[in-house]
Amino acid sequence: IPPPSLPLLGSTLTSLMFTCLLSSLIPLLQIDHFGFFEDGTFKQRYLVNDQHWHEEGNPILFYTGNEGDITWFCNNTGFMWDVAEELGAMLVFAEHRYYGESMPFGQDSYKDAKHLNYLTSEQALADFAVLIRELKKTVPGAQDSPVVAIGGSYGGMLSAWMRMKYPNVVVGALAASAPIWQFTDMVPCSVFYKIVTEGFSRNGADCSDSIRKSWSAVDNVSSTEGGLKWLSNEFSLCSPLEKEDVLVFKAWLQETWVNLAMVNYPYEANFLQPLPRWPVQVACTYLQDSSLPDAPLLQGISKAVKMYYNYTGNTQCLRISETATGNLGYLGWYYQACTEMVMPMCTDGVQDMFEPQSWDFEAFSEECYGRFGARPRAQWAGTVYGGKDIGSHSNIVFSNGNLDPWSGGGVTQSFSSNLVAVVIQDGAHHLDLRFNNNYDPSSVLKARALELKYIKMWIEQHSLSNKAAAPCCL
Known about the structure:
- With about 475 residues, the protein is α/β, with parallel strands linked by helices.
- It is about 40% helix and about 10% strand.
- Strand 7 (about 145-150), helix 5 (about 155-165) and strand 8 form a beta-alpha-beta unit.
- The protein starts with 20 loop residues before the first strand and ends in a 5-residue tail after the last helix.
């Protein structure tokens, strides 16, 4: 099972209260920071808001961009906006190379393996380090500003690794829903889908059991031409199902349940899709009897799926090729998963509600080679970022919601007083980085307060260090 795409961070503002300004300084970055053969450069896009940054040396909150267009992050990363005034902070949102408009080779960036070769997290981190250096050099008053890295999901992984790899550049990092251990030999391959299942089982065993039984129900119904037509009509599909589409249809259903688990927020939101409060709970209202025959069971599945894809009632039909927001750079993430970001996933149909599928690295490698002409390095992420041996690092807060499937690969226990884990009860994927909301559980309010406390502490440590280093006299 290839890993699901790490979702982008976000929440939607009912009205944009803030403005993200495209900086007039778009630095020319090296396409390859670690070699000397490819000496080309490219323009990296980044966004800046300095409305609360009024004093020399005030802090910079630096968002380490994920696999998507940076403008979307800028207007949807609520925590940074909510704390900017109190901290007097400048906000910077840096776009990840090969996503959005930051294309190293322009329209040829995805042409072949040769052009994609420089799409790695290591190159992206070096981009961020160079960008911060340039900002401090060119923005008056920023020379001594402490920089705090912040990110969610893949961006959270990057913020943690930024602090690990470039502690001279960032004074600390908030890594929200960052599965830095979702790699080979670090956590069981089954953990992700077990947490997805637990989220549905919280609303009654029949809910997850209905989904578990739905796979054989799909097989049974789709075995005839009439059954395929019935499924197409029942799920309001834009294109009629053919026999060869059944595996794709089931993969689409599986990704739907995964996405619902990740965005199970306590209020209406339109992160991946417009959804009601506690959408998993709503989906489970249609899945209360797992003993139903195939057709009525699948009618309940259909209602739950349509709640995800058509909560507003404005969608005319559903496409099984679409599961998430168009802001995701799916192809780029697929390439990263096929090279450095090897995240083993497996299911057994017993501890989870999905069809059994083992993790087959060799098959995955062949799939990647066929698609990109590149093979994955199973152990590389652990080698380059230290795996689970991170105790020597400092000034990182790892936050995870217990409802989030990616928490299984996250850091959920503190290593020390300055390498801290925050677990958010009733929290889905990076709930703490969303805007404050009246329906927020107390757990996320406490988490944000603690995160802000650590950010202030890192800023103060930087200030004291600078004072101690300054010469007192001639």
